[in-house]
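Researcher: Going back to the complex we discussed earlier. I've cleaned up the inputs and rechecked each line, so this should be the final set. Can you rerun the prediction on the complete assembly and write out the structure?
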Amino acid sequence: QKEVEQDPGPLSVPEGAIVSLNCTYSNSAFQYFMWYRQYSRKGPELLMYTYSSGNKEDGRFTAQVDKSSKYISLFIRDSQPSDSATYLCAMSAGIQGAQKLVFGQGTRLTINP
Amino acid sequence: NAGVMQNPRHLVRRRGQEARLRCSPMKGHSHVYWYRQLPEEGLKFMVYLQKENIIDESGMPKERFSAEFPKEGPSILRIQQVVRGDSAAYFCASSGSYQETQYFGPGTRLLVL
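Model: Rerun complete. Updated structure for the full complex:
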């Protein structure tokens, strides 16, 4: 079993829809949770960063972490064609544990105009 | 305000040759991480370095791969006697001290013929 599971999609939605992306994980030591966006043949770009459980909002993006269920989500409101990319969840145990990031496989998202 | 820089962006090698990938971290960052992304897969951690020290190399293949981050100059990921299975995108990330977030470079795409 992988440490981090993420549905690879592909996911295709119409412009303006709310998008929900999810990851589950098995390592209870993970405390830091990130979402990266990766355009084709580019490097991952940090979108959201959350420590421990709770919600964090930044513009059209909301990240949620439920440590009791080992489940994290990223919501995109009012989705735009420019949001079409692969979204990667990543997590780490942090400075007190291991700082390496463990990634999900990535979900390929297409927003149709 | 340069971000993480990697060069070359594309590298073609024949089987048995050596590949050298370079990474300059973001200004003010002293922690460097290398990740590998195989086609249709997520990023996999390889090695974590600070200046002149390897902190975690748990993701590095036991043979042919090495990494360094000298006191002066960029971090280097070296792959000796490359094989076709080494063809992948190699990403470098950097972070500051006591920072959990990692920022990625554009990657080096290695093709082994």
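Model: Worth noting: The first strand of chain B starts at residue 5 and ends at 7.
Researcher: Good, that matches what I expected from the previous run.
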